[in-house]
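hey team, just a heads up i'm posting the complex here instead of the shared drive bc the drive is being weird again. everything in one block, sequence lines first with there labels, then the predicted structure for the whole assembly after. its two chains so it's a bit long, scroll down
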Amino acid sequence: MSSLDGKEPPPPQMNIERVSLSFGGVKALTDISFNIYPSTIQAIIGPNGAGKTSLLNCISGLYKPRQGRILFEGTHDLVRLAPHRIARLGVARSFQNIELFRHMSVLDNLMLGRHVHMKSGVFSGGLYWGFAQREEIQHREFVEHVIDLLEIQHIRKNTVGSLAYGLQKRVELGRALAMNPRLLLLDEPMAGMNSEEKEDMARFVLDISEEWRTTIVLIEHDMGVVMDISDRVAVLDFGKLIGEGTPEEIRVNPLVIEAYLGREHGEAMPA
Amino acid sequence: MEKFIQLSMSGVSNGAILALVALGFVLIFKSSDVINFAQGELLMIGSYLTYTAIEQFGLFWPLGVVVAVALSAVAGVLIEQLVLRPLIGEPVISVIMITIGLSSLLRAIIGAIWGVSPLPSPKFIPTDTINILGASVGANRLWAIGLSIVLLTALTIFFRRSNDGIAMRAVADDQQAALSMGISIKHVWAVSWAIAAVTAAIGGILLASIFGGVGASIGRVGLLVFPVVILGGLDSIPGAIVGGLIIGLLQSYAGGYLPPELGMGEVAPFIILIFILLVRPYGLFGQKIIERV
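-- predicted structure starts here --
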């Protein structure tokens, strides 16, 4: 299993094995299997309704697949765990339609990301004031680190509901990062952004990957961005996995080209 | 002037108790969207358990109160787990019907255990009167005010500072996001019901002393929670506190200054309820919900 010559890939951090999900008679996902490797950026692409978000929801536990396993770090089958347990294992996520705590400040939202790491319980927060305070200071330091990384110093006291869309997206990424996750699921982090905001977001994703070595699973529609920043790409179409590989492999995969461009058109995906 | 002070003191003390009870109601609504029509019965459970612990088992009163309040918390958690948890995902109207049914059921259980005629109130809260600027005010009313202030302050700090309190606010704001932050919603619901049962139990104990007996009249105070939370805003904790005080004072002044044969003390809170629903349905501090289609 160990990589003796340095070329052998490390063991996968996540094995998605034959996952199928249906809502009544509608098959959202059919027999999906692929691996996600540590410290990589794994993109999931596909036309609207292909099942990308459904797959992300299966990983984070919001949906329970009818069949299959999702093994995290070799030992935990996420299919059997409640969403909050999965979060505590180190799987964080952002949502396609922003799901922030709108009535709280940016700082409070990020501090909630630290919730999984907080030890002082119901009463100790009040009783062992010293300990709770030391703990809080540590968490604040971590959160400030996230704030610096995402360049949101100027809005840390603002109420989230009052912020512009692009900034809310950034705060949501920050809240997931504050969990110091081992696996970060991002559901269309750049949707609805202008090109400048997209560039910023792409830079943040790359920074996180490089500095923190966090594994990132990314759903994104902008092909340029996907091909630029991903290490591997999985392609879904009508709930089936029609391709998985490096961006170069995906670009020339005939099934993928067909799904995106139709049968008779072009030979390669736009770069 | 004496009359005004007297009415004000009894209004503030009733209002403080109402605020306490309404806070539990708001907490349950915020974290789980359940409108609890059995809040009044939680008051009764607390006061009857205290009666049993102190008068029947002869416990020293602080111990008796602690035992009764702890058992009330257990009852609250049991109600949540056995009655409401199976209803997750059911329509709001079913949940409301269940809590109305629950209130009748609890009343019947209380009647079966303790009988239907009022029992004497445990005597640990002093009932002698104290002279304040010429008006005589019951010491138990001062107790009610003091204890409510302490509890409301403690709970406010709990919501702002403690992990569980912050988790509750998160669940109230966005359940899906809370789940993805590692917050257990079931745990939050259990804690909300426990807190609601505890505040109701303490409210019930104070009311037993003010009413001079433990009986169904305590449960009827539960109905007043509705004008309080509609006035303050269903989802607002400060609203519950302010609403409680306003309704308590209003009831007291209306009962004291208007001709008694009109019974305005009983009716005024519900006139306010209707008025607020007409002009400002989200209450003084509630969240305006705008449906975008």
